[in-house]
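Table S2 (continued). Query chain:
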Amino acid sequence: MPARVTSQPSFSGRVSQPSTAAKVFTGLAFDTCTAPSATTMSAWRAHSPYGAAAVYVGGRNRGCAQPQLTSSWVRTVTTAGWKLVPLYVGAQPPCQTSSNPERITATNATSLGTTDGADAVAKAQALGMRAGSAIYLDMEAFDSSDTSCVSSVLSYIRAWDRALHVHDYWAGFYGFTSSSAAVVAQAKSTTPGMPDALWYAKYDGNASTTTGFPFSSGLYTGHRRGHQYLVNQKESYGGASVTVDRDAWDAPVAVV
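Corresponding output:
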C-alpha cells in the first residue's frame, strides 16, 4: 500500500499554532457518509488501496447517523492500521441554498464559530482523538460572490480555528474549489487565522494533491493538502461493498 505516516514538528507562517506536532498521512483515503462496520474496515484494510478514512464526528448539520462511530470502533480500526480524518459539519453560510438547521449570520458568526469549534474538540476527544489531531470543518458550496456572506463565513472559520488551537488541535477545512475552498485559499495569504490544512473537492479523477492544484502553488505546501477527486464510487474489497468518495491525501490526521 503506497502510503506513509510522519510527524511534522510544526507548520510555519501561522499565528497561534498548536504546540503538539501534527501526524501526517500520505496516500489514498476514502470518505463515506456513515462509518462502515469494523468488519468492513478490516476487509478493506487487507484488500483495498486505502490507508485512511474520513469520519463525521459531529456538527448539528451532520447528515448521517453514525451507529458504528464509537471510541471502541476508533481503537479497533486504528489498531488495525487505519488513519482517520475527522470531519465536523458546522454552521453553513447565510447565502447557501439548503435546509441546514444551523446557519451563520453576520451577528452570530464569531460566537457560533467559537461554540462549534469547542464542540468539535469535545466530540473528537470523546472518540479518543487526542491533542495534535486535525479536525476538518465541512463547509458546502455557497455564493462566493456575495461579499457580506463571505465576510461572515471568514469570521466563523477564524473563530472555529481559534477554538481548536486553544485545545491544541489542528484546524482543517473541507470545501469546493468553486466556492468555499476558493474563499479560504484567497484569504490565506492576507487574513490571519485561516485553516492549517485544506481539503478541496475537485472532481478531475486525478489522484494527486499537486498536479492540477487549483490555487496558487505556494498555498498549503508542506503536507497540508487533501484532494477529493472522485465521488459516489461503489467499491468492493474482501467481500464488503461501500459507496465512497476517493481522496488523495497528504495532510494531518487524527492522533489516537
